[in-house]
Amino acid sequence: MMEKLEKIALTKLLKLELPQFVKQVTACLEKHNPESLKLQDTYELLNDQCDKMKLLVAPYGPHPLTEQIQQLHQKRLRFAAAITMQMNMFRKLDFEESREWVRIAHPVVRIHLNYLRKNNQPVIDRILDIFFKQLKDNPEEQHALEMLGLKYCLDELRSANDEYDKLTTIRLRQISQRPKAVSGDIQKEAQYILRSFFEQINFYQFTYKDVNYTPLISELNNIIVRFRGLINTRATCGATRKEKAKIKAAEVDTQIEETTPKESSLKTKSKKIAKDRTTKGKEAKSNYTPINKADVKETDKDLPLQNLIRILKFPNKRGSS
């Protein structure tokens, strides 16, 4: 009866898990005498893959010199800005004793150091190279800067720039010495050979019935099950994280819904307010008694006539008064 070889999703093995899997499978085959199992050629292929697996290393990450290079770059910008600010101050103060030095030094500072930070790093590298070459070719400009008290800032800028160039060159050389092999291609090749090996075992059980492949398959199954467990655990953890994220998002949505009035409730409330206002308006209208303007006018007309009758009726009272 044919022994069943367990299955595994080789593409789901991590970059640093695959070398261990290849190594253990190769060692398993070697222990069971690959020549007697008619698998000598496959064993040699797996051995070659073990050598190639050495190229599958952990990601390099940032180069150790990168942080120091960035610090030097910021130092360059700070001292370039200090030179620019002091030069602008001398121009505004316009001292008679420094006027000539400013006239000589200001153009080279304005052209090369003003707004230096607005450029990207390669452009800044080139601008500073041109700046220092300009000073070297024109000693009077260097002298003018020193006479203005900018020697310290100038020396610090030059020192930071030289160290920056030195470390950048070292970093580029070290990065260029890293292996050029593409890890993706190496992984695909190893996965293809492993699949072929597993299929070959299944096929050879029918081809060479006098050869016992059961011990080899049993041990390979133990290896496969162990690595498949790693894949399943990783998948379960990933699913759990996703589920927790969904639950958290749902809770946030619920809180938002609870704190935010719904559109339907707002419409109902608005309709209720409008209805109350209409009812109150109708009640006020029903209780209102209109004034008879005709009556008011007639009363007003009768008042002078009544006063005249009263005077004619009692003339003595009027005269005595």
List keywords for this structure.
single chain, mainly alpha, 321 residues, disordered C terminus
Describe the protein in words.
This protein has 321 residues and is an all-alpha fold. It has a domain at 66-176. It contains twelve helices and no strands. It has helices spanning 18-31, 40-52, 66-93, 99-112, 121-137, 139-147, 151-176, 183-207, 214-259, 263-287, 293-313, 315-320. The radius of gyration is 48 Å and the shape is flat.
Our Rg estimate from Cα atoms comes to: 48 Å
Helix-strand pattern: HHHHHHHHHHHH
Total beta strands = 0
Distance between the termini: 150 Å
Task: Give a quick rundown of the structure.
With 321 residues, the chain is mostly helical.
List the topology elements:
Layout (H helix, E strand, L loop, with lengths): L17 H14 L8 H13 L13 H28 L5 H14 L8 H17 L1 H9 L3 H26 L6 H25 L6 H46 L3 H25 L5 H21 L1 H6 L1
Helix pairs in contact: 1-2, 1-9, 2-8, 3-4, 3-7, 4-6, 5-6
